[in-house]
Design a protein that fits this description.
By secondary structure, the chain is mainly alpha-helical. The protein is built from 12 helices and no strands.
């Protein structure tokens, strides 16, 4: 009984800010109408956020799955050093390298580009993603892969058709973290994007809530918070079972 009381209290504690934001945003329904008409339109900003998030998730999953499999199954010179170098990205302060990255994207022709922004997000997601995927592949019995090879599958075919399916919870966990990081990030889009038509939702929401002399329109701010929070909430509810399994199997083994 005490367990359910504690869990209920925690649920109320965590849900209260979301419920309060939703109620505050609905006190004046015109907030959503004003937000929809701001600048290029909320649809444009939402589309930009979706595109960046999809590219980030896809890039993170592809690179981390292939890299995690290689680190878990193959021996090659400098393997441990390369893995540690990848994890060392976590030690670099996020804000300190955005300006150098902005200059680098300029040389690559990707300045003020959603593709360039997605590549930056993928880079910052790789340490956690590779750590999770390496541990997930190491947790699989080698007999599973050997049986596939005996049945005539090549290494890559066994990887795609069998091993990826076996580490699906870890893939979902990595993808969910990549989505949340790219969907909610404010600082990187603010620095790397300079065209209003390319802004993502977090930058657009901050811009649309600014008023004269720095005043903030809190009603519109809460409306923007709800627009950004709903997709995250839906994904957590739909994927929570896989997320918990993937996080436990991938993180605890490390």
């Amino acid at each position: 009984m005490k367990r359910y009381v504690t869990l209920s209290a925690l649920a109320v504690l965590f849900l209260f800010p979301l419920v309060w934001s939703g109620w505050a945003s609905l006190k004046e329904p015109s907030n959503y109408l004003e937000m929809a008409r701001f600048g290029e339109g909320v649809g444009t900003y939402a589309t930009n956020s979706v595109l960046v998030s999809v590219m980030t998730v896809a890039g993170t999953l592809v690179v981390s799955a292939l890299g995690g499999y290689a680190f878990a199954r193959f021996d090659f010179p400098g393997k441990n050093l390369l893995f540690l170098a990848t994890l060392a990205i976590l030690m670099v302060p996020y804000a300190t390298i955005l300006i150098p990255l902005y200059v680098l994207l300029g040389y690559l022709g990707l300045q003020n580009s959603l593709v360039g922004l997605a590549l930056v997000f993928v880079m910052f997601q790789l340490p956690f993603a590779l750590f999770m995927m390496r541990n997930a592949f190491e947790a699989l019995p080698r007999e599973l892969e050997e049986a596939a090879l005996v049945d005539g599958c090549g290494t890559f075919r066994a990887f795609v058709r069998i091993l990826l399916h076996a580490v699906r919870p870890a893939l979902i966990t990595v993808g969910l973290f990549a989505f949340l990081a790219s969907w909610n990030d404010f600082f990187a889009p603010l620095i790397l994007l300079n065209d209003g038509a390319s802004f993502t939702l977090p930058v657009a929401v901050v811009s649309m809530t600014q008023r004269t002399f720095g005043a903030i329109d809190y009603g519109m701010l809460q409306a923007g918070v709800m627009v950004m929070a709903v997709p995250c909430l839906v994904l957590f509810i739909v994927l929570q079972r896989h997320y918990v399994r993937g996080f436990m199997s991938g993180a605890l083994r490390g």
